[in-house]
TrEMBL record:
It is an enzyme of class 3 (hydrolase). Signal peptide: none annotated. Transmembrane segments: none annotated. The keyword 4Fe-4S does not apply. GO terms for molecular function: ribonuclease P activity. This is Ribonuclease P protein component. Pfam families: Ribonuclease_P (PF00825). Keywords: Endonuclease, Hydrolase, Nuclease, RNA-binding, tRNA processing. Its EC number is 3.1.26.5. It comes from Olsenella absiana. The lineage of its organism: Bacteria, Bacillati, Actinomycetota, Coriobacteriia, Coriobacteriales. The gene is rnpA.
Length: 111
């Protein structure tokens, strides 16, 4: 899975991307036609909790992204964990992610 690693790539997605929210996950999407990179990133901010809590959230996000077939050929996506991500299963987060991707107009292989 190709991931966004550099600060420059993050800034590119943040500045040009659109944001979509769900209780379990938040995403920022930059379409390829708008200069996308076809990569994905997983973010769990420090305000969520300690390292163990944040790492669990990122594992759930990675599993959900795998179920949805990310990274998509259509866009670059940054996925943000929420407090509710920790207690949710990867299947629940994958369903929420597929709904957000549909809103964003990005193809999800998990559908």
């Amino acid at each position: 899975m190709e991931t966004i690693k550099s600060k420059k790539e993050f800034e590119r997605v943040f500045s040009g991307g659109r944001r979509y929210n769900h209780r379990l996950v938040r995403i920022t999407v930059l379409r390829v036609s708008e200069g996308g990179l076809n990569k994905v990133a997983f973010v769990a901010p420090k305000r969520l909790g300690n390292a163990v809590f944040r790492n669990r959230c990122k594992r759930v996000l990675r599993a959900a992204a795998y179920e949805c077939g990310l990274p998509s050929e259509d866009a670059s996506i940054i996925m943000f964990a929420t407090k509710a991500t920790h207690g949710a299963s990867s299947v629940e987060v994958a369903y929420a992610l597929s709904q957000l991707l549909r809103k964003a107009g990005v193809r999800c292989d998990g559908d």
